[in-house]
Each structure stands twice: as structure tokens, then as C-alpha cells.
């Protein structure tokens, strides 16, 4: 495959959504690498991060007026960060890579 400048395209990336997962096909000099990524877990991690932002904003706003509420928001934010990290780590560990001849 060649681009508009006539240079050989070495890498091409194709994403197909299949039952909540993305299959990435990476073509590199005759090899195809398939990687299965759990999009649902990534969306969960994203939701955890969004909630963390909201909780930290609450903690900042209440830091002077209600320090007990601020501390609770910080604690919850910490738990959400842990959950997000766990989800992302799980996706990294369970991603399956297979090599096949093209």
C-alpha cells in the first residue's frame, strides 16, 4: 500500500468493534498482531476518574467550611483512583496478542 507521496505504508491500524471489544490489527512487514482490549473496563476506569475529579472538587470547596466532609471526599476519591488503576491494569494483563503470518 502506498500513500499520496509514493512512500510505502509499513503500519496500518484497523479497529473493529466486536461485542464491546476492539480488535486492533497491526500490519508490519507481513505480520498481523491481534490485540483484544476490554472497552467496558476502560469505560469503567474513565468513570472512576471522572468521579474522582468531582470528589476532589468537592473536597477543595469544603476544605475550610466542612473539613470532615472534605476528608470523606478525599477518601472516596482515593478509592476511585484505586479502582481505575485496577481496571486499567486488568486490561493490560488480559490483552491477548497473537502473531500470525500475513
Structural account:
The chain is an alpha+beta fold. It has one domain (11-101). It has two helices and four strands, in the order βββααβ. It has a four-stranded antiparallel sheet. Strand 2 and strand 3 form a beta hairpin. Helix 1 packs antiparallel against helix 2 (67-94). The longest helix is centred in the last third of the chain and has 28 residues, at 67-94. 10% of the residues are buried. Mean pLDDT is 75; it is low at 1-20 and 96-102.
Strand fraction band?
A: 25-35%
Query: Could you list the spans in which at least 5 consecutive residues all have pLDDT below 50?
Result: 1-20, 96-102
Oligomer: single chain
Q: Strand-and-helix sequence, N→C?
A: EEEHHE
Amino acid at each position: 500500500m502506498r500513500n499520496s507521496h509514493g512512500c510505502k505504508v509499513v503500519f496500518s491500524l484497523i479497529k473493529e468493534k466486536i461485542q464491546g471489544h476492539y480488535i486492533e490489527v497491526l500490519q508490519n512487514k507481513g505480520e498481523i498482531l491481534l490485540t483484544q482490549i476490554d472497552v467496558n473496563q476502560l469505560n469503567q476506569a474513565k468513570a472512576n476518574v471522572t468521579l474522582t475529579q468531582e470528589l476532589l472538587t468537592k473536597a477543595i470547596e469544603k476544605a475550610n467550611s466542612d473539613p470532615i466532609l472534605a476528608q470523606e471526599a478525599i477518601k472516596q476519591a482515593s478509592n476511585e483512583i484505586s479502582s481505575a488503576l485496577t481496571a486499567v491494569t486488568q486490561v493490560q494483563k488480559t490483552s491477548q496478542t497473537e502473531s500470525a503470518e500475513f
